[in-house]
# Entry
Amino acid sequence: MKYYLSVLAGAMSYGILSTIVVLAYGQGYQLGEVVGTQLITGFILSWMLALYTRFRAKRKAQAVSQEKVTSASPSNIFTRLTWKQRLMLMAAGTPTVITGLVYYQSLRYIPASLAIILLFQFTWISVLIQAISKRQRPDKITFLTLFILFGGTLLAAGFLEQGISNVSGMGIALGLMAAVSYSLFVLFSGKAVPSAHPAFRSAWMVTGGLILLCILFPPTFLFNGLIWSQLLVFGLLLGFFGAFIPPVLFAIGVPHIGGDMAGILGAVELPVAVLLSSIVLHEHVSVLQWFGVVIVLIGVALPELYKMRARRSRSTPVYSG
# Structure
């Protein structure tokens, strides 16, 4: 049960971010300052965890060697990465920065409840990208899932009630761009040096993201004293709940519950973000929109449930009478 709760808590942490960003904008802070403090916090916390993990592994290895145990040393999990592997991990981390930039920028034009719904379009965008790259037509369950997601999105976004003309086109474009960028991150991150320890994979990916951000938005807030204002509070919260906690909790829980179940539990990010935007930011979310959120969650969970059922049916022995 603790592994399920770990993944669930990690996904809920992601759902908090949009509300914190809107509150930071309300205090007059700019996009580069918000994302910059988030990544710097995540960078420091990620490397502290990575170094602490290495330290613990070395201590265990020393204890094992003193007891003259012939089994493999725990330090073997920390095979030294080459610079090529480090650069691959840093490159794989750059889409997260693009995602954060365009997603947070969309919050200036559209409500947080709508922005998170647009971000969740990465589910079908990922399928589309994979289908194009593999030149393979999606199966029937995928088409059904896309249909459900499309219908749920129309309801959850409030398009059927308010009409699309009342929504900022720039905000919608930025939200969809964030979904595309996040899809690329999901596709690339899993293929980048999978043999590396999760703590160091996360640390190097955050490092790559931070370098890209510093190029796009030079961190002047570190030198003009702005970092010691309320910006530091927002940065600590965003870095903790966005760049540190979710990767750690996912690394703990996903290997034990499997990627399929993790994908289902990860969808809790959507209702958490919508709920917080309604309670904290006082955004209006109608009953019909909540119904749309439920439909989107069903669409996200459907293919994973189908895979789990298929595997269970294959593993069940068939007895002839």
The chain has one domain: 2-137+168-281.
